[in-house]
Amino acid sequence: MPVPARGFKIELLAGTDNLSSRQKLLSLYPIIVLQRNNGMNINFWTRELLTISSRYFIIAGIAFLLAYIILKPWISEKKIQKIFPKGSDYAREIGFSMITMLIFACVPTFILTTPSIAVHTLYYRNISDYGMVYFCLAFVIMLFAHDMYFYWIHRIMHHPKLFKLLHLVHHKSTNPSPWAAYSFHPLEAIAEVGIYVIFLFGMPMHKYHLIFFFLFQIIYNVYGHLGYELYPKNFNKTWIGKYINTSTAHNQHHKFFNGNYGLYFTIWDHWMGTLRNDYDAAFEEVKSRGRKIN
Ligand SMILES: [Zn+2]
Ligand SMILES: [Zn+2]
Known about the structure:
By secondary structure, this protein is mainly alpha-helical.
C-alpha cells in the first residue's frame, strides 16, 4: 500500500535542521490540516482503495477466469469440493469483499494523514536507514508475525460467543471461491487490518515492505480460497510442506468449520493440536484424482 513518506513532510520544512523530526512533523500540522480540508485525505483514501481493490479484482479475477471458466472442462475433476458455488455465492463474496476493502483503505489513511499519529509510526523512507539485511529480514518477520496474528484472532473468532457476529459471514462460503478472499463481516475486517497497525508501529516499515507483503498476502489468500490444490502430490509429507498451509487445509476449514486455523503455515495448528486428523488423507485424495494440474 503506498504511504506518504514521513520524509516528504519533513522536507517541506527544509532549513529547520535544529528541530527534531517529531517537532518538524508536528509543526506541519496546520499545513496538513489545510491540505486535508482541500481533499488530501479523500485523495489518499481513494488511492489506497484503488490499490487494494485492483489487486483483489485482478488476482481473484484471473484465478476465477482460469479455474472456474476457461480451464473448467479439463480440471473440474480436480476441484477440492467437486460442485461449484452458485452465482449468489460469488455475489455475496464480492459484496462483502468490497465492504472490507473500504474499511482496509481507512486505516492507512487515518494513521498516515494524522500527523500526531503518523509521527509515532516506524515508517521510513530510505532502505539505507536500516540496511539491506534488515530490509530483507523484515519480510520473513512479517510473514511469521502475520501468521501468528491471524491464527489467534481466527481462533478467538471461533469462540461460540463471537462466531456468529464476527466470523459467520466468512463461513457462509462452505465451498469457497477466489472471491471469498476478503469476504468478511465489517467487524472481522477491522480485526484483520490490525496486522497493518502492528507492522506500522511495531517494526521499521519501508513502503516496499507494505507494497510487496500485501501483494503476496492477497495472492496467497486467493490461493487459499481457490478450491483447487496447486502444491504437488505428497507435498504435505515433505519436511517443509508439512508446515505450509495449503488450499486443501483451508478448504477443509470452510467445509467443516473447525481445525486448520492457520494462514501461511500449519506451525500453530501443529503446536496447538488443531490440525485436522483427516488433512493428510484429504490432500492425498485430491492429488490422486485423474488428470494432473501441476
Ligand atoms: Zn474460520
Ligand atoms: Zn477463508
